[in-house]
């Protein structure tokens, strides 16, 4: 067990008083208490919790407004064996004061999300008993589970805490009206993942993106993160602290409370954030705005400037250091709409969240530019992903896409750019380190879409209509042209009827039969899918299996290395591409021969057809 130095006592109170700013909220204290202590050390020794007795009075510190911790009080109720986890017992206290119980005209909020990590002290010795980290029920319940201080301090060294000999106090819990079954584990106080860049009105977009990024269990709210992390809020015991996957335009912050500060070491939460083990998140001070007294109360706060790195995210709490910041990925963007330009900038420290944050940045930029929710329109978006390969070479992946819809354009345009980030970073062939992402997005309020309504072929001066599934007679080695008639996809599209031509030359080696496929590459993403399928591109569909429907289609194989994967990604068609594929078998060897051509239109293109060819 790591025990903080007792020599820090006496000095910390002076430093704390100089660091605190803001106005404290008046606290309600128990009549059984004397006046609360004016201060506690930032890095106290761990209290020997085996000495706790039922009804023993304690004091704590938490912050509900600004950056100044305020006192609360409590009494020891009992212990739950293995309540936190295997060989990790939990202390149970009944708390009051601050905003836990009624404060003036304000009703009590109970144990709210964001109180986790608030230190609990023995007022006689000043030792740290632990942190408020678990709750029994939602609402205004004042019963709280406390993680012992020795567990919290052990997180720094990744030590597995020795079992502390605690009393079995389930009878005492029963006297408090709490039913604790054998082997019960309490719920950690919810960590609210605040996401900036989204108003409460359009926060559903962020939630939908999160679910598709595998974050369905995250509690995502607006109001818990700052758009610009510029203010330097102090990190003190009982104060607010945030750990972020990203900061800037898109700040994704878990906000809780600081348990102890030992020199540059910060201990907080008393339970995990996402339980990642080792971590590379960024640490920030935070300023509380207030407590939202909803069915599941939570603390609203503004996140300050980055001050350090979160190193451990463990069952017993989180641990980080103040000073050196983690290496981040620079995510920059430029979005234009009707003459206005919206610049974007976010730093991403948690690489596992990179595709998620990329999707959020893209969506937030569009919402800011259009200033309307679920609005349709058109987007021409391009992106460049810079990365370093295992051999140290620096490369880029550049691609673009076009979208147009009458419904929510924002839901559509995040898919490809986030998918490329996910596919590149999670590839199975070699370790890739993404170093930067740049996105440009030109938006329009117009919905523009074509549909292929007719195809004609021209050989010499003869033009014939091509019907789906028909067989067309074509001479080997001769040229022929296809004319495509593009109509408005529906009556709402701001396009006009047009025609496009593509010319081809057949192979001298073609056998008797062949196939031509014509396709517009527009597609729709269904964000109401109850299965919440991943938005990200999945290239696993390219299996080593021949299509049973035709001998003239190629055998698509999954990429065998990173270079093949990059080529596959780069060759993905745009939605405004009209693609023509031709396949035939050689009359000499029987091998498959193919050619492809692509025509780029001025709007997205739906529809297509297939016809057969008889060569002569």
Structural account:
The chain has 3 domains: 1-326, no CATH class; 329-444, no CATH class; 449-537 and 572-615, no CATH class. Strands 1-2-3-6-5-4 form a 6-stranded antiparallel β-barrel. The protein has a 6-stranded antiparallel β-barrel with strand order 10-11-12-16-15-14. Strands 22, 23, 25, 26 and 30 form a 5-stranded mixed beta sheet that branches. Helices cover 12% and strands 41% of the residues. The protein has helices at residues 12-19, 149-154, 170-175, 203-212, 354-370, 409-413, 415-425, 562-570, and strands spanning 57-62, 70-85, 88-97, 118-121, 128-135, 143-148, 187-188, 192-195, 219-221, 240-248, 252-262, 265-268, 277-278, 282-292, 298-314, 317-322, 329-337, 340-348, 377-388, 394-405, 433-444, 449-459, 462-466, 471-474, 479-488, 498-505, 510-520, 577-586, 592-600, 604-606, 608-615. The termini are far apart. It has 616 residues and is mainly β. A hairpin with a 5-residue loop joins strand 28 and strand 29. Helix 4 packs antiparallel against helix 5 (354-370). It is built from 8 helices and 31 strands. Residues 1-33, 216-227 and 525-547 have low confidence and may be disordered. The chain is elongated and about 100 Å long.
């Amino acid at each position: 067990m790591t025990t903080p130095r007792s020599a820090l006592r006496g000095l910390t109170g002076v430093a704390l008083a100089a660091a605190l700013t803001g106005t404290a909220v008046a606290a309600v204290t128990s009549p059984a208490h004397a006046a609360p202590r004016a201060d506690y050390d930032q890095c106290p020794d761990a209290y020997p919790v085996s000495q706790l007795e039922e009804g023993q009075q304690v004091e704590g510190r938490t912050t509900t407004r600004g950056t100044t911790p305020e006192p609360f009080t409590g009494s020891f109720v009992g212990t739950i064996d293995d309540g936190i986890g295997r060989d990790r017992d939990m202390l149970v206290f009944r708390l009051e004061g601050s905003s836990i119980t009624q404060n003036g005209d304000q009703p009590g909020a109970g144990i709210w999300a964001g109180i986790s990590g608030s230190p609990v002290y023995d007022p006689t010795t000043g030792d740290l008993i632990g942190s408020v980290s678990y709750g029994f029920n939602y609402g205004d319940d004042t019963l709280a589970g406390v993680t012992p201080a020795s567990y919290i301090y052990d997180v720094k060294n990744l030590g597995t805490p020795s079992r502390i000999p605690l009393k079995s106090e389930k009878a005492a819990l029963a006297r408090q009206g709490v039913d604790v079954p054998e082997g019960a584990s309490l719920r950690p106080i919810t960590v609210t993942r605040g996401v900036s860049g989204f108003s409460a009105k359009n926060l559903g977009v962020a939630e939908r993106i999160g679910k598709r990024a595998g974050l369905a269990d995250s509690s995502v709210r607006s109001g818990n993160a700052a758009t610009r992390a510029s203010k330097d809020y102090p990190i003190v015991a009982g104060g607010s602290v945030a750990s972020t996957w990203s900061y800037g335009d898109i700040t994704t912050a878990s906000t809780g409370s600081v348990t102890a500060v030992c020199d540059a070491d910060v201990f907080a939460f008393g339970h995990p954030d996402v339980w990642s083990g080792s971590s590379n998140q960024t640490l920030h001070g935070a300023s509380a705005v207030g407590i939202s007294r909803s069915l599941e109360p939570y603390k609203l706060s503004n996140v300050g400037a980055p001050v350090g790195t979160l190193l451990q995210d463990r069952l017993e709490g989180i641990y980080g250091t103040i000073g050196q910041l983690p290496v981040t990925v620079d995510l920059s963007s430029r979005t234009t709409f009707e003459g206005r330009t919206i610049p974007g900038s976010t730093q991403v420290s948690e690489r596992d969240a990179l595709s998620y944050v990329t999707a959020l940045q893209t969506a937030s930029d569009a919402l800011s530019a259009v200033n309307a929710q679920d609005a349709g329109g058109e987007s021409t978006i391009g992106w460049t992903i810079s990365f370093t390969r295992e051999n140290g070479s620096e490369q880029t992946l550049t691609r673009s896409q076009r979208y147009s819809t009458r419904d929510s354009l924002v839901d559509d345009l995040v898919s490809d750019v986030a998918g490329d980030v996910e596919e590149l970073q999670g590839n199975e062939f070699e370790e890739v380190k993404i170093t930067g992402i740049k996105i440009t997005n030109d938006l329009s309020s117009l919905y523009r879409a074509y549909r292929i309504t007719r195809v004609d072929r021209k050989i010499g001066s003869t033009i014939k209509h091509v019907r789906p599934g028909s067989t067309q007679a074509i001479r080997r080695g001769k040229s022929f042209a296809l004319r495509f008639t593009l109509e408005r996809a529906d009556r709402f599209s701001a396009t006009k009827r047009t025609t496009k031509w593509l010319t081809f030359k057949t192979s001298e080696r073609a056998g008797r039969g062949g196939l031509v496929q014509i396709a517009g590459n527009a597609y729709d993403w269904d964000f109401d899918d109850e299965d919440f399928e991943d938005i990200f591109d999945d290239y696993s569909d390219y299996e080593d299996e021949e299509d049973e429907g035709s001998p003239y289609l190629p055998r698509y194989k999954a990429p065998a290395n990173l270079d093949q994967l990059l080529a596959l990604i780069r060759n993905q068609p745009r939605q405004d591409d009209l693609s023509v594929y031709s396949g035939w078998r050689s009359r000499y060897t029987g091998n498959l021969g193919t050619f492809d051509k692509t025509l780029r239109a001025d709007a997205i293109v739906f529809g297509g057809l297939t016809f057969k060819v008889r060569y002569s």
